[in-house]
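In response to the reviewer comment on reproducibility (Comment 2.3), we provide here a single inverse folding case reported in full, input and output, so that an independent group could reproduce the run without further information from us. The structure tokens appear first.
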């Protein structure tokens, strides 16, 4: 019998297997892929300590992507830029580089059994064990037994479906997303996450590995669907409308097919039940505009590993251990869930021309910038009070 069977070997699943393997638990980690490849992702990693504990921080930071220490926000040509204050650095890695690092961090532990090209057919709880029917690419079926099964298998989680996990909150976001990898984009002197408010869209640009950039465009569903069979042509036309970005894309080459979704559902599921738990997108899915999907999956995997250790070692009852995991997960994710809704809602808000002119005045006159800094606490409080009636947290606003 395995102590824990984990379905899904990307961010949440591979990280969880690594944490549990370090503690000596016998873990089965399965995934349907043959090797980790590209997938819908935020491409931004801000946490540092958790990757140090996984033993991959140096590999990540030596993978050819610059450390991003600046945030630039552009509203119709009016630009604000500052050091990023919530983390020492952000790094952008393609998932085909990052996910194998996590998988390697799990594979080094002898008690972790990794099976790729394997799918889950069914899950059944009997007594104190969960029975998982597996099928490999050759059509060979096998039933394995584990004390606990974990769903880390993404937005279309088979485990969540099999255990009938309820959605506690659910929303269809107003905006979808398309992203591409590009070469030849004129770089900023200091690497930055660039955020452009443009019409009813949000455009995020950030450097990634091998001198490339990731460009993600968050657009209303109807526009993405209207772009139809010519997404790259339409995306380029859209980017060329952004005054402070257009001059930098003249020699840009798109080197990946556009990936993304027109319709994105956000949700928060109940994350545990008798003998099962969910982590990553299987349990909670946020819009990519939040920019925290990778970090959330890995950090929540660490929370879950701690809770599972307390249960498997006999220190806590199952219910007590899982309630602690739920509290930690929700404390982290719920404000982000609400903030993503607020951020997308702002794309539909019209900024009066008079207000935009005042904003330009603030950025034009150095004394105004200094004066705004002197009143920063009052400005900050006013903005938060304006957000409060919508029931939205401040993070990522």
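Designed residues, in position order:
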């Amino acid at each position: 019998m395995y102590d824990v069977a984990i379905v899904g070997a990307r961010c949440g699943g591979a990280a969880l297997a690594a944490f549990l393997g370090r503690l000596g638990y016998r873990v089965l980690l399965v995934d349907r892929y043959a090797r980790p490849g590209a997938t819908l992702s935020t491409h931004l990693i801000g946490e540092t300590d958790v990757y140090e504990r996984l033993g991959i921080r140096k590999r990540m930071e030596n993978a050819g992507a610059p450390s991003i220490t600046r945030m630039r926000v552009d509203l119709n040509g009016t630009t604000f830029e500052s050091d990023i204050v919530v983390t020492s650095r952000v790094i952008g890695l393609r998932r085909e580089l990052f996910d194998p690092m996590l998988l390697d961090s799990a594979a080094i532990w002898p008690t972790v059994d990794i099976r790729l090209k394997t799918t889950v057919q069914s899950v059944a709880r009997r007594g104190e064990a969960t029975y998982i029917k597996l099928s490999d690419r050759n059509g060979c079926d096998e039933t394995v037994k584990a004390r606990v099964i974990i769903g880390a298998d993404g937005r279309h989680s088979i485990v969540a479906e099999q255990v009938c996990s309820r959605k506690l909150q659910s929303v269809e976001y107003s905006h979808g997303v398309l992203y591409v990898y590009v070469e030849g984009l004129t770089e900023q002197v200091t690497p930055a996450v660039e955020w452009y408010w443009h019409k009813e869209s949000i455009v995020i640009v950030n450097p990634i590995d091998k001198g490339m950039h990731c460009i993600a465009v968050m657009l209303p569903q109807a526009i993405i669907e209207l772009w139809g069979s010519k997404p790259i042509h339409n995306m380029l036309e859209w980017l060329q409308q952004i005054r402070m970005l257009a001059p930098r894309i003249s020699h840009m080459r798109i080197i990946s097919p556009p990936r993304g979704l027109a319709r994105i559902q956000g949700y928060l599921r109940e994350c545990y039940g008798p003998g099962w738990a969910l982590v990553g997108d299987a349990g909670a899915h946020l819009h990519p505009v939040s920019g925290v999907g990778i970090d959330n999956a890995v950090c929540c995997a660490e929370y879950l590993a701690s809770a599972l250790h307390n249960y498997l070692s006999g220190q806590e009852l199952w219910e007590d251990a899982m309630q602690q995991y739920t509290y930690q997960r929700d404390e982290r994710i719920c404000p982000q869930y609400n903030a993503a809704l607020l951020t997308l809602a702002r794309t539909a808000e019209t900024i009066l021309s008079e207000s935009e002119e005042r904003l330009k005045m603030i950025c034009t006159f150095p004394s105004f910038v200094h004066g705004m800094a002197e009143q920063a606490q009052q400005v900050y409080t006013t903005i938060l009070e304006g957000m409060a009636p919508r029931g939205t947290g401040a993070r990522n606003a």
